[in-house]
Amino acid sequence: MEVKSKIDDLIEMTRINDILDKREAASAKKASNVILWVLAVLGAISAVAIIAYLVYRYMTPAFEDDYYDDDFDDFEDDFEDEDFIKEG
Questions:
Q1: How many domains does the chain have?
Q2: Is pLDDT above 90 for 53?
Q3: Is this prediction's pTM over 0.85?
């Protein structure tokens, strides 16, 4: 009888291990699905942000011309006048 109970225990342990393995496999699959969804959401947010930035850059006027005008040519001449030179 003792041998039969050991065999029954061994069979029961095998069934329990099979059930646990199936649960672990299912939980691993769920975890990979969660990671996939998180990466998909981050990718979508990144794409929208990049598109918004590109639209902003396209729609914003460039003010570079204002800095390169000849308006500042007279500025240097003011300091070269005799009135501004300090004698020491």
A1: 1
A2: yes
A3: no
